[in-house]
Amino acid sequence: MKKKQIHQQLYFQVIIAIIAGILLGKFYPELGEKMKPLGDGFIKLVKMIIAPVIFITLTLGIAHMTDLKKVGRIAIKAMIYFLTFSTLALIIGLVVGNILQPGHGLNIDPATLSGDVSQYQQKAHETTLTGFIMNIIPETLFSPLVGENILQVLLVAILMGVALVLTKEKSQKVTEFLQDLSTPVFKIVHMLMKLAPIGAFGAMAFTIGKYGLHSV
Question: What is the pTM assigned to this prediction?
Answer without folding.
Answer: 0.73
